[in-house]
UniProtKB/TrEMBL annotation:
Residues 3-37 form the Zinc finger/thioredoxin putative domain. Residues 72-243 form the AAA domain. This is Chromosome partitioning protein ParA.
Amino acid sequence: MTIIVCPNCSKKYRADTNKLTTRKKFLVRCKTCEHKFVINLEQPALVQPPVVEQKVVEPDYASTPNSSKSPRKICVTLSKGGVGKTTTAVNLSAGLATAGYKVLLIDTDTQGQSSFMLGKKPPAGLTELLTGELPPKETIFPARPNLDLLSGGRSLAGVKRIIDKKSFGSEWTLAEAMEKIDSDYDYVIIDTSPGWDQLTVNVLFYADEILTPVALEVMALHGLSEFIKNLHAIKKYKEIDLKYIVPTFLDTRVEQPKNIYRKLQGLYGDKVCTPIRYDEELSKIPSYGQTIFEFIPDGDGAADYGALVRTIAKNKNILLGGHSSDETSQIA
Ligand SMILES: Nc1ncnc2c1ncn2[C@@H]1O[C@H](COP(=O)(O)OP(=O)(O)OP(=O)(O)O)[C@@H](O)[C@H]1O
Ligand SMILES: [Mg+2]
């Protein structure tokens, strides 16, 4: 047990440290004066050891969701449109599922393209989960063995309005809803829409890791640095890591994308993954409702996404894609 002190009204709260152990930094609200403030367990200025016989009340945990068994929660995001977010989210999820992990793919985009790419039209999805219209488990649909889908689509536009109107804690809406279901999975992969709205913020408050696809074109570095600036605002309230930068649309026949790739490596080092090459087959798969591993398992797209799956799972032995993709042969 620890005592948390509101910096505004000095009200003291007793906090169950067991509930706080997985997150070192989080936002709380004082139930007495409504003041919101950040608790950083590593800089315990607002945290005191318990005092005997102190009058205490329980803190409001609604804004600090937590669960005992946590999957890896990876959001695939960049404000810039058309960079390969959905293609990456879908094929990464499918690859991890094929490798034997239990995966949930969440589509938070009103375009609903993740379901489309998987050839599925679930009758319910993220909207019904967030509005509470259906019990959580009834909003999730199997898409492939080991791969479940929480689909997006046009109805999410209404959900964004509901989130916007919430007077407090709106940024935790998704995290709270997922608390009841995500412990069933090894990975939760979240596809986001282009731009930056309330739902994107909710995704960043839920996920722990960020994977950013960056199309290797002239404005790539600008789009990425703008996104990183926005991310700083979120990092004040919760820990989230930009872990993987995935260069996409690499055209090996021309010099410019290779130069941009090298610049990315110079700026972001190990975060930069082996690129996904431009591949005609990847642009065709949405029309067939198949993943690249189903459509052309021995093509470049499957090889590149196979390599990404191995990087994310930190397991070199996963066999996906007919031939191996290695960075040196692509960029030489
Ligand atoms: N490596 C690739 N080679 C060729 N085509 C690709 C590749 N990756 C994605 N595509 C195609 O490019 C288009 C945009 O990809 P995708 O929909 O994945 O981007 P997005 O970032 O999700 O877009 P949005 O921001 O609109 O959600 C799609 O038609 C897709 O099939
Ligand atoms: Mg998309």
